[in-house]
Design goal:
- The protein is an alpha/beta fold.
- The chain has 14 helices and 12 strands.
- The protein folds into 3 domains: 82 residues, Arc Repressor Mutant, subunit A (Orthogonal Bundle); 117 residues, 3-Layer(aba) Sandwich (D-Maltodextrin-Binding Protein, domain 2); 104 residues, D-Maltodextrin-Binding Protein, domain 2, CATH 3.40.190.
- Helix 1 packs across helix 3 and helix 1 crosses helix 4.
- The N and C termini lie far apart (72 Å).
C-alpha cells in the first residue's frame, strides 16, 4: 500500500469522479485508475461503485475512508515534526535541571530564549545532579543543567562557577566584624540545606578539613526555608550565591567572608548526549547559553569536559 494510492482514494471520494481526481493530483486518468485498482486488489474488495461518469463508495470503501484520513493526517504531522527539527522557531525542548539552578538561574536563561524563540515549548524536570545525568542518558530530557559531571556518553561544557558563601542576618556580629573564622562558625547555630546535595558535600569537606564539629540546629530541604530562618536570626548557613541575590539587594541577608580564605566553588555545566546533531531547537538553546556564559569567561573550550566540584583555600 502506497501513499499515492491513499491520496488517490481520498481525491476520488472528494470529487466523486476519477477524471476530476486525476486533474487535482495532476495525473492522467489511466494513472489514477491504476492506483485505485492496485489498492482494491490489495484490500481484496472493490472500494468504489463505477456509475457511468461518477463513482460512489462501496460499504468497504466507507469503512476504509476514516482510517485513510487519519493515516494521512498522522503522516503530515510526522513530516511537520521532522521539519521542525531543522527550525528553531517551533518545537519542544525538554530540560533537566538541578533544583537550585532551576530556581535561581534558569528563569533568566529561559526568558532570553523565549524572547528569541517564542514558538518553542519548554518542559522542565528537576532533581539532583545525578538524577539529571540519568535523565539525559535515558533521553528523558535533551539538555541537563547540573554541577559538572563526567560520563563517557555525555558532552559537557562549563557555564559558570557557583560560589557557596556564608550567609547571616545583617545584624550578626560576623557582619559587623566584616569577616568570620571557620572556627567561630563552629560555635554558631548552623542551618544546613539538604544533606544529600552537592552544596552539603562541599561544606562538609570544609569543616572536616578544618577539624571542627558544626553546631547544626536545623536540617532543611529547601533553600527558601533556609533563607527565611536566617532572616529571623535563627542561625547562619552556607548557600549558593545565586540563591540570595534578591535578599542581598533588599538587605535582608548578608554574606561574610571566611578569614581562612576558603573558596567553596561548585562548577556548573550544561550537558547533552554525544551525537552528530542535536536538532535546531537544542542547538538554539545551547547557543543562547553560550552567549550568556562565554567560553572565555569560563576559561575553557566549547567541548571541554571539566573538573569535579572543588574546595580551594586561597
Amino acid at each position: 500500500m502506497e501513499i499515492g494510492q491513499l491520496e488517490a482514494f481520498l481525491q476520488v471520494v472528494q470529487h466523486h469522479s476519477f477524471s476530476r481526481a486525476a486533474e487535482a493530483l495532476e495525473l492522467t486518468q489511466p494513472s489514477l485508475s491504476a492506483r485505485i485498482l492496485a489498492l482494491e486488489r490489495e484490500m481484496g474488495e472493490p472500494l468504489f461503485q463505477r456509475m457511468g461518469r461518477g463513482v460512489r463508495l462501496t460499504e468497504a470503501g466507507r469503512a476504509f475512508q476514516p482510517y485513510v484520513e487519519r493515516a494521512l493526517e498522522a503522516l503530515r504531522d510526522a513530516m511537520d515534526a521532522v521539519d521542525a527539527t531543522h527550525r528553531a522557531s517551533t518545537g519542544k525542548l525538554r530540560i533537566g535541571s538541578a533544583r537550585a539552578i532551576c530556581a535561581y538561574v534558569l528563569p533568566r536563561i529561559l526568558e532570553a530564549f523565549h524572547q528569541a524563540h517564542p514558538g518553542v515549548d519548554v518542559a522542565i524536570k528537576t532533581g539532583r545532579s545525578s538524577d539529571v545525568l540519568e535523565m539525559v542518558l535515558s533521553e528523558e530530557v535533551q539538555i541537563g543543567l547540573t554541577r559538572t559531571m563526567v560520563h563517557q556518553e555525555i558532552e559537557s561544557r562549563h557555564l559558570y562557577d557557583e560560589h557557596v558563601v556564608l550567609v547571616s542576618h545583617p545584624s550578626h556580629p560576623f557582619v559587623r566584624a566584616g569577616v568570620a573564622s571557620i572556627y567561630d562558625v563552629a560555635h554558631e547555630p548552623l542551618i544546613l540545606y539538604d544533606k544529600d546535595s552537592s552544596y552539603f558535600v562541599l561544606i562538609n569537606k570544609v569543616v572536616r578539613e578544618a577539624g571542627i564539629v558544626p553546631n547544626v540546629q536545623m536540617d532543611l530541604d529547601s533553600i527558601e526555608a533556609t533563607k527565611r530562618m536566617i532572616e529571623r536570626g535563627l542561625g547562619i548557613s552556607f548557600l549558593p550565591y545565586n540563591s540570595i541575590l534578591t535578599e542581598l539587594e533588599q538587605e535582608t541577608l548578608a554574606t561574610v567572608p571566611l578569614k581562612e580564605g576558603y573558596n567553596v566553588v561548585l562548577p556548573t555545566s550544561v550537558m547533552v548526549r554525544k551525537a552528530s546533531s542535536h536538532g535546531a531547537v537544542v542547538e538554539a538553546f545551547l547557543a543562547q547559553l553560550y552567549s550568556m556564559y562565554p567560553a572565555s569567561l569560563a576559561g575553557e573550550g566549547q567541548d571541554a569536559l571539566l573538573e569535579a566540584p572543588r574546595v580551594a583555600a586561597r
